[in-house]
Amino acid sequence: MTTNTKRYIRESALEARIAAIVEPVAQSLGYDLVRIRVSNENGCTLQVMCEDESGRFTIDDCERLHNDLNPILDLEDPIDREYHLEISSPGIDRPLVRARDFQAWVGHEARVELADMIDGRKRFRGEIVGADDETFSIRLPDAPMGTEPVHTLPLAFLADAKLVLTDALLEAARERQQAEPDFDDSDADIETIIEHTDGADADERNQEN
Q1: What is the pLDDT of residues 132-178, one digit of tens each?
Q2: How far apart are CA 41 and CA 63, in angstroms?
Q3: Model confidence over 85-94: pLDDT tens digits?
Q4: What angle do CA 38, 41, 42 make, to 5 degrees?
Q5: In whole angstroms, what is the distance from residue 41 CA to residue 47 CA?
Q6: CATH code of the region 13-92+185-208
Q7: Is the per-residue pLDDT at 196 higher than 50?
Q8: Could you give the CA distance from residue 126 to residue 107 in angstroms, rounded to a whole number?
């Protein structure tokens, strides 16, 4: 079992700032932050993706986190315009952001992008074959004849990684649902969207400037 719990993911400066606000709140409730994403969807959307230690995140979890997080976001005010707050689970074809994620999904296909080039490439797609605290290994199906198909890559170089939605992954999700009666697979893609208005504060700041 890996002991490295650091997140490895490419984030903008704004997303990193929001992650620093969100992560302590999530951890206080027993959740791990998976990803922060700020997009132009619906004008502006702040997505907060979390999970518990078993990889679950139900609608009740979404509501608990929202109730604790919303007043802190109001106070910190990280986004200077109106935005939608979206709190969600990782879903089935989830992002892979920690060493334990790669270890948990050995045998499944992933799409990986690195921040820096290794072995002449930044993008890799193939089967996860192992992981430890510092690296993960992926087997490429398109490796040229006579070359090593397994690439061992440093987690520190990771920019973005995500499971690929395959029949095998869907079957694994079904098996998990059957093995854990309390786990509702319908929650795997739940997203709770709560509109959060910050326009008045933004207007005041613009007038002051």
Answers
A1: 999 999 999 987 888 889 999 999 999 999 999 999 999 998 888 77
A2: 22
A3: 999 999 999 9
A4: 120
A5: 10
A6: 3.30.300.70
A7: yes
A8: 9
Same fold flag, 13-92+185-208 and 99-164: no
Token pair belonging to 23:
């992560």
Q: How many CB atoms lie within 10 A of CB 143?
A: 13
d(CA 41, CA 83): 9
92-104 per-position pLDDT tens digit: 999 999 999 999 9
Q: Is 95 left (phi over 0), alpha (psi -120 to 50) or beta?
A: beta
Domain map (residue ranges) of the chain:
13-92+185-208, 99-164
Class for domain 99-164, per CATH? mainly beta
Q: Match 């993960």 to its residue by tokens.
A: 136
Distance, in Å, from the CA atom of 92 to the CA atom of 72, rounded to the nearest integer, reads 29
Strand partners, 193: 86
